[in-house]
From TrEMBL:
UniProt cross-references to Pfam families, sorted A to Z: CERK_C, DAGK_cat, PH_CERK
Top-level division of the source organism's lineage: Eukaryota
InterPro entries named among the record's database cross-references: ATP-NAD_kinase_N, CERK_C, CERK_PH, Diacylglycerol_kinase_cat_dom, Lipid_Phosphate_FormReg, NAD/diacylglycerol_kinase_sf
GO molecular function, one term: ceramide kinase activity
GO terms for cellular component: membrane
GO biological process: ceramide metabolic process
Gene for this chain: zgc:158263
PANTHER family: CERAMIDE KINASE (PTHR12358:SF95), SPHINGOSINE KINASE (PTHR12358)
Protein name as catalogued: Zgc:158263
Length: 585
């Protein structure tokens, strides 16, 4: 309390010839225009934690930095929000205001108080950052994005950065595993999801090395990483950035880094027997998503289009795979994947998890052993044929699927959502896929299950069971009336028709013949007995795996999707969507 009264400051300040009443108190700095008759006009209020910097004189940073060093002026840079132009996400921009004071003494008092206030209210602001730029990520603009948009902001905020432009894949990971990291507060990656994954593996590995823990043992509670990770999006897929910030925008991300925002993130470790294979934060998928990745790798020359192309091809190949899925359910009293909540900035489910995982004040000093102290609970086992088996530690929303694979999943609640899509008719599966692009509930289908879990094991059934399936040839779930109507509608529009006919052995139409060269690799060859795992965009080399979610293992310079930022596309302005979030323009 004393600190807050100490920091209070109020005076008249001028911007040009307009007089303002400026107040710094507690968490906010605000200024109100006062007209000639002493009446208050509009107030602008900025949380002190969102003040980017305070400079003496009249300062500009764009198009380049210039300082007019006057005695009675000071400039405040702060975070200003603006619409992203599309229906979701808010952009952060650098706001700037130049105040004049009646005296130099008052000016110095303002700059001193503001600087003290922002240190007090945002203690995690970085002083020194290690920056890795992937010069080949996305449209190969990583270097330009960093130097023209990000570096000037870091400089303004007084952050010193050590920049490494990578010359090979895994250089950033190896650097983090081996080199001296003393003095750095965080690691910034300029690139896409692949580059983020390198940083993730490097930092987690380094932290375990230093703690003397084995990453290979899935029962070990891993040590959370002390360094924050910042993501400057510059890749062709920037899903982690999108899911944790709400927009894919380098300036927005740079401002989150500068003010030291902190967003914990769950990480899933994927093991084969007793060896760590990889870490995952977004999608771990077998069946459809594995096949799409494997197929798209063959068509890299197509660029980003290859995902749409491969998705269609894999869909048309109409595959399902036998498997045994075992999972360890999370506490159903804490949350559920179908509770229609969304994990937004300041999420209460994630905050409660932070209190549970780190019961003492310092986040890193006392890591709660989640696996041995939690009662483990009972594993559940299911077996059958699946279109896909997916595990996601976050909603995995992206511009194409604004609500994501699991709309109510949390970034940092120590759990993942396991989505089981049982074998079904091709058009039922199409309906499931299609629902990801709308606000319709993709789990409300008879062949789909979703479970909130702490761990998952996947294995292949023995050969005998596979044979038995072929003899009875049954599908689980069946087709309901609504689906039947849907199937008929879709079947009529040409390209899908041959799917239904292929099984009945009918002659191919010309249209189908034309499609054949594309389908050859997928349909005409013998259907493989197993798929591959897609682990955040990488193919895993083994099929039988054990996955374990580690609550809040890393922290990002982000704050989650801000409340008010729209995360749905039902299209109605100022309307409430199904998920209870409001669209703002
Ligand atoms: N200098 C480099 N040369 C080649 N590869 C690199 C280099 N630096 C990083 N990489 C690798 O490039 C991969 C892709 O990088 P990134 O995620 O930044 O871009 P992207 O365009 O989104 O990738 P993707 O091809 O997965 O869509 C990463 O796996 C990373 O390990």
């Amino acid at each position: 309390m004393e600190m807050e009264t100490e920091l209070r400051l109020e005076s008249s300040l001028w911007v040009g010839n307009k007089r303002y009443r400026a107040v710094l108190s507690g968490w906010h700095f605000n200024w109100t225009e006062v007209d000639k008759k002493n009446r208050d006009k509009k107030t602008i209020s900025v949380p002190v934690a969102e003040v980017v910097g305070v400079e003496e004189g009249r300062v500009e940073i764009l198009p380049r930095k210039s300082v007019e060093d006057t005695d009675k002026d000071f400039t405040v840079f702060y975070v200003k929000r603006s619409s992203s132009g599309s229906s979701y996400g808010l952009l952060w921009r650098l706001g700037r205001i130049q105040f004049s004071c009646p005296s130099r003494v008052l000016r110095d008092q303002w700059t001193k108080h503001l600087r003290t206030a922002l240190k007090t209210h945002s203690p995690l602001r970085p002083n020194r950052l290690l920056v890795f730029i992937n010069p080949f990520g996305g449209k190969k603009k990583g270097r330009k994005i960093y130097h023209s948009l990000v570096a000037p902001l870091f400089e303004l905020a007084g952050i010193s950065s050590h920049v490494i432009v990578t010359e090979r894949a895994n250089q950033a990971r190896d650097h983090l595993l081996k080199k001296d990291l003393k003095g750095f507060d965080g690691v910034v990656c300029v690139g896409g999801d692949g580059m983020f994954s390198e940083i993730l593996h490097g930092l987690i590995g380094r932290t375990q090395q230093e703690a003397g823990l084995s990453e290979n043992d899935p029962t070990v509670a891993l040590q959370p990483c002390p360094l924050h990770i910042g993501i400057i999006p510059a890749g062709s897929t920037d899903c982690v950035c999108y899911a944790t910030v709400g927009v894919i925008d380098p300036v927005t991300s740079a401002l989150h880094i500068i003010i030291g925002d902190s967003q914990p993130l769950d990480v899933c470790s994927v093991h084969q027997a007793s060896a760590l294979m990889r870490y995952s934060v977004s999608l771990l998928g077998y069946g459809f998503y594995g096949d799409v990745l494997a197929e798209s790798e063959k068509h890299r020359w197509m660029g980003p289009l290859r995902y749409d192309y491969s998705g269609t091809m894999v869909y048309l190949s109409n595959r399902s795979y036998a498997g045994i899925v075992q999972y360890l359910p999370a506490d159903p009293l804490l949350s559920s994947p179908r509770d229609r909540t969304r994990c937004l900035s300041g999420c209460s489910v994630c905050s409660r998890t932070t209190e549970r995982l780190f019961p003492h004040s310092s986040v890193y000093s006392s890591h709660f052993n989640q696996f041995s102290s939690d009662s483990e609970g009972e594993w559940v086992s299911v077996e059958g044929r699946f279109r896909c088996v997916s595990l996601t530690c976050m909603s995995s929303s992206c511009p194409k699927s604004p609500l994501g694979l699991s709309p109510s999943a949390h970034l940092a609640d120590g759990t993942g959502d396991l989505i089981l899509v049982w074998d079904t008719h091709p058009l039922g599966f199409l309906k499931f896929l299609y629902r990801h692009t709308s606000t319709q509930d993709q789990f409300d289908l008879p062949f789909v299950e979703v479970h909130r879990v702490k761990a998952v094991r996947f294995s292949l059934p023995s050969g005998k069971e596979e044979e038995a399936y072929k003899e009875t040839g049954g599908l689980r779930g069946g087709i309901d009336e609504e689906e039947r109507g849907y199937i008929e509608t879709v079947s009529r529009n040409g390209s899908q028709q041959h799917l239904a006919e292929r099984d009945t052995g009918q002659e191919m139409t010309n249209e189908q013949k034309m499609a054949t060269p594309f389908l050859c690799g997928l349909c005409c060859s013998k259907v493989p007995a197993k798929s591959v795992w897609n682990c955040d965009g990488e193919i895993l080399s083994s099929t039988e795996i054990l996955c374990r979610i580690h609550g809040q293992l890393v922290r990002l310079y982000a704050r989650g999707i801000e409340e008010g930022a729209a995360v749905h596309n039902c299209g109605k302005e100022n309307d409430k969507c199904q998920m209870g979030c409001t669209l703002i323009k």
